[in-house]
Design goal:
25% helix; 27% strand; 2 domains; Immunoglobulin-like
């Protein structure tokens, strides 16, 4: 597959883990047009263009570079949309591929649609992405830091043969499940997961009364190839939980199997990112105890964390066959108190700006602290 386009002195490359781009057109030596690769589901529908990540090389330090992001329109839940890239979600960029900042000089044209970025690099290359990347390599480095605290178990393999991990810490009677990165573009989920994992490794009080089971990377293949929200066969790792297909959905099969084999849960939590919404959603249940737990959880998060919901706590409704989310599935299978959170990548009211990596790490620490409090 072509991953580099050259003209004059400028080049665009995405030949690295998590890299993704579509067509590239060089307009001028300091101006390139880059399309979003996008990704479709198993039916060839629901194209998602929520992710791009590429490197621009051969530029002149101190000289502005113009990048036009195009091919943005897609489809979500079988409804056409203008795409995830808009005036509220410009881009992030980095001089070194490690420290990320938001692009400040941009113009969004909704009639195209097109996002025009203007970046002045400090060196001969720089990186651009939809959100700060978090890859399998980041997770490997995290494991090296916390492996003396956690127990790690391989629960299965992805379609491409990558290990699916379960990390466990604590020996208490109450079991709490944390799931991160069901959708590969949602990198803020993993940054929050890292903050949570580091806090669990550090905080003896959180370890003493609970057993924490963490699924840190639900879709390692998508993360590696720079995917969006589907596995290699086009299945959504959060929307196909009631479809029984081990061969084409080994990720869901392994995660579901290990959860159902490990007894009751005091709380299950899956974290996601979205463009402009932030909310907590509970399972489709009439159980009064679970609803009260959800109310305590929501209030505690608002009071004790940077969670800034754009709508009140809600409980999931019915879905069409084949479209169950993880909280639908766990509620139907075991009646678990299963909750899902969406965190926005656009300007967040408590920060007064778009979230950064440090904010996600902080929220991870806050998240497990709040969970410990409400379950105590």
């Amino acid at each position: 597959m072509l991953t580099t386009v050259l003209a004059f002195f400028i080049s665009v490359s995405w030949a690295f883990e998590g890299g993704s781009a579509g067509r590239v057109e060089v307009v001028a030596p300091d101006h390139v047009r880059v399309g979003a690769q996008g990704e479709k589901d198993q039916d060839g529908r629901n194209r998602q263009a929520n992710w791009y990540s590429f490197m621009v090389k051969g530029v002149r330090p101190g000289k502005p570079v113009t990048i036009d992001l195009v091919d943005l329109p897609g489809e979500y839940n079988y409804q056409a949309n203008r795409g995830a890239v808009n005036a509220e979600t410009p881009a992030v960029w980095s001089d070194d591929g490690r420290t990320w900042r938001h692009v400040e000089n941009f113009q969004y044209d909704p009639t195209q649609p097109r996002m025009r970025l203007q970046i002045t690099p400090r060196g001969a290359r720089f990186w651009v992405a939809h959100t700060p990347p978090y890859t399998n390599q980041h997770l490997d480095r995290l494991w090296k830091d916390v492996h003396n605290s956690f127990r790690r178990e391989e629960i299965g393999r992805s379609v491409d043969g990558r290990p699916l991990w379960l990390w466990t810490i604590g020996t208490g009677p109450k079991t709490v499940w944390l799931m991160f990165r069901q959708h590969s573009w949602e990198t803020g989920s993993s940054w929050t997961g890292e903050g949570a994992i580091r806090e669990l490794a550090r905080n003896a009080a959180l370890q003493s009364g609970y057993t924490w089971k963490v699924l840190p990377m639900a879709d390692p293949d998508g993360v590696a190839r720079g995917g969006v929200r589907f596995n290699k066969y086009g299945f959504d790792l959060n929307r196909n939980w009631d479809v029984n297909g081990v061969a084409k959905m080994p990720e869901i099969a392994a995660q579901r199997k290990v959860m159902l084999a490990n007894g009751p849960a005091a709380l299950f939590f899956s974290l996601h990112n979205t463009e402009t919404s932030e909310y907590l959603e509970g399972p489709p249940t009439a159980d009064a105890a679970i609803r009260k737990l959800g109310e305590r959880f929501s209030k505690a998060l608002e009071a004790g964390s940077s969670f800034a919901p754009t709508r009140p706590l809600s409980f999931a409704g019915a879905v069409a066959p084949g479209r169950m989310t993880v909280i639908h599935g766990l509620s139907a299978d075991r009646g678990w108190p299963a909750f899902l959170m969406e965190q926005r990548i656009s300007t967040q009211s408590k920060y007064g700006r778009r979230p950064l990596v440090k904010d996600r790490l902080r929220f991870g620490r806050e998240l497990v602290t709040v969970m410990g409090e409400i379950l105590r």
